[in-house]
Amino acid sequence: MPEGDTVWLAAHRLHEALADRVLTVSDLRVPRLATVDLTGRRVLGVVPRGKRLLTRCEGGLTLHSHLRMEGSWRVFAADERPRGGPWHEIRAVLGNASRTAVGYRLPVLDLLPTEDEHRVVGHLGPDLLGPDWDPGAAAARLVRDPARPLADALLDQRNLAGIGNVYACELAFLARVSPWLPVGDLPGDVPLRLVTTAHRLLEANKTRSDRTTTTARTPGRLHVYGRGGRPCPRCGTPVARAGPEPGRNERVTYWCRGCQPGPAP
Known about the structure:
Blueprint: H1 4-18, E1 25-28, E2 43-49, E3 52-57, E4 61-66, E5 72-77, E6 90-95, E7 99-104, E8 108-113, H2 118-121, H3 135-142, H4 150-155, H5 165-174, H6 190-205, E9 239-242, E10 253-256
Antiparallel strand pairs: 1-6, 2-3, 3-4, 4-8, 5-7, 6-7, 9-10
């Protein structure tokens, strides 16, 4: 599932291509929206909310999309042939006189009144890259279920919106705790430091495609994620990898047994 910074960048690119322009192409390729025609409506803006995208149009309508694991939006010149996957994987096409936005493999695509956006995003916690960001509220939500493992709590968008598996692994490493440590066992100010670090990292990465969580003095772009079996940049212990079991749709977790003490799977 894309991280919040990836979704923010997608929203930024869609906004640049579509905002303040009248739609001349509207093709929503999901059964319940097959007869919807948004041509003639001006796009008011495209905003991210956690891992969701809200494309607001004149007339009080919002097209809501969620990328989940496989979805993506790509922007092309109006006369350019779309590239991003087979034609049958396209779920949405929105275009104007100069740009065309194409949504591939979108598992969630809904049209709803703009005034009802709360139905799809109202349950989300403070948005790491949004105007509602509140580190105190996010830290309090993170630990409200004391027995819950840290990585699970970080990935729960009801606690704070925007963290995916990459950041969950990297944040646990930076905090020097196991991803499976119950959040109730986190020392004193660690929850607040975790969410503050998450906000700093997503802000730093939101305009770039080559995400990094390391400093210039640390080799590589990530500390542990995707580095199974390679030396931990902090202590040299081989980075461990857990999951998924064959046939199960689970996330892969990376951590260092040497400098991230606590429970392990």
